Amino acid sequence: MMPWVLQIPLLDLIIATPAHSQSHTASRAAQIKHSTVQNRSVAPIMAPTSSSELLQAQAELWCHAFAYLKSMALQSVIRLGIPTAIHRCGGAASLSDLQVALPVVPASKWQSLSRLMKLLVLSGIFREGEAGAYCLTPVSRLLVEDDQDQMACLSQFAVLATSPFHFGASQRLPEWLKNDDASSETPFKMAYGAGFFGYTSRDLEFGKLFNEAMSADSRFAAEILVSECGEVFAGLTSLVDVGGGDGTTAKAIAKAFPHVRCSVLELPQVADTMPEDSTVEFVAGDMMEFVPPADAVLLKFVLHNWNDEDCVGILKRSKEAVSTREPKGKVIIIDTVAGLASKQTFEAQLLMDTCMMILTKGEERDEEKWHRLFLNAGFSGYKISPILGCRSLIELYP
Ligand SMILES: C[S@@+](CC[C@H](N)C(=O)[O-])C[C@H]1O[C@@H](n2cnc3c(N)ncnc32)[C@H](O)[C@@H]1O
Predict the structure, then answer these.
(1) For 291-311, what is each residue's pLDDT tens digit?
(2) Which residue ranges does the record assign to the O-methyltransferase C-terminal domain (predicted)?
């Protein structure tokens, strides 16, 4: 069951006109100006006034400036297999249990590793149990790689996000913000000389890392999608997963709902390398030119890679692909609707937005931005179900 949904016929909604926004801005500016004149002697807001406030501010600054070291500590324990080792010890492991389980770490490094674990306990990745044992938390449970286990694992996603590829591109952000020429389209392109999806085929190590990360994310999301959102697929006989990667999501849908014939549209560099599969058909093509017809088009984690103009084009082609299948034809989007969330989820969404700024020409959109895209692509209504944590499921009607 969906906890709650927003169902909106597009034509019923009134979008604020520029004139309305401008007059609002103008009157707010007048208020601010007025209060500035009234309060000339007030000290600048937020300036630390005592030594203790200054020192507190310094501690906060250290935390922000060194935040990437949490990512590096996280990547280290994933690569060493520590969450899996703790899981195999029954969910709690002492340092000596880990020493037995992980002979790859030399004796000289255990002291250093215990210092990293202290940071990760403080960050909530692990928890300290009885007699100083390290225990899994819900976060590190997501990093357990165990073939015996039925639970989805997100360690490959975290390895990609903390990889030198992402880190190298993010180092170009300040330079990119000052630059306006075509070669500096994204910080990623400045760092590696190619756009993101071009580079996945050019650098095999990066391509493999990216595909494994997307596949891990899809296993995670598909588990929730098929168990919680069955009604979304009711009555459908065919679905095409556009930009569907290695077909993990399409395969999960085909398995859970055998009445839906699933295919995947992917770039030739991806589709042509996929092994024959009896449940899902791979179609090599370019979504910027063509979307194959089906009852439903799925766009999971795709539109946030593209700017508004490209998104409207993809959505128009998706609308054409499903329109003839009315009344059941629809487009299903899985992506962030920024802001429909707790503070922590919103922070995760803003970090993903910054990641999109660095890697692609896309962004994480709030509902107003989605609304404008849907209107420009000619759709008649949509329904947002915020049921996938940081992301929502959006059903879009032609
Ligand atoms: C961020 S990934 C998402 C993959 C998959 N939907 C998922 O959620 O795991 C975006 C996908 O779009 C594919 N893609 C990029 N440009 C494309 C295009 N022009 N036509 C078809 N697929 C494209 C990429 O190869 C990649 O697999």
Answers:
(1) 999 999 999 999 999 999 999
(2) 183-380
